[in-house]
Structure formats: C-alpha cells, structure tokens
C-alpha cells in the first residue's frame, strides 16, 4: 500500500522563497525528481554530438568567406593608404610650386 500523497499549494507572493525550500518534498515530488534526474544528460548527449557536427560544418562553411573578407579589407586598406600617400605627395608638390611662384612674384615686385 502506498502512502497517501499530499500536495502543497503555491506559497503566497508575500512568503519568502526560501521558506518553501525548508519544507520537505512530497512523495510525488521526490518520484518526479528521480525520474528526471538523468534526463538532461541523456537528452543532451545526442544533441551535443549534433551540435558539434553543426558547429564544425558552420566553421568550414564560413572559413573561406571570412578569409576572403579579411583579404578584401586588407586590400581596401592598402589602396586607401596608397591613395592618401599619393594625394599627400601631390599636395606637397602644389605647395612647393606655389611657394616658388610666390617667391618669384615677391622678387619681381620688390626688385631684389
């Protein structure tokens, strides 16, 4: 003969949550705890294998596009650096030319 099971009603909202942990579990709660104790491990093992396979597949599928993107970014950065460098040289040459022209104008104006 099985002992009668008792059920607890949920504690009122004003009760401190720790109070319910101090009460002994009912037989039904104990039985359910035993039944599900090993379930997460059992259920997680096949999923873990599938997740690992999918992860490896994703890594392989994304490796080449990621490398291509990295190379594209590197090439764009190199192109931008070359453009800035060339524009800097051109601007410096313009400044030199203008300075020489201005120096010539000053000499002509002052007669020196």
From TrEMBL:
Residues 28-41, 53-63 have a biased composition (Basic and acidic residues). It comes from the Bacteria. Residues 1-112 are annotated as: Disordered. Residues 1-14 have a biased composition (Pro residues). Residues 66-85 have a biased composition (Low complexity). This is Antitoxin protein of toxin-antitoxin system. It comes from Pseudonocardia benzenivorans.
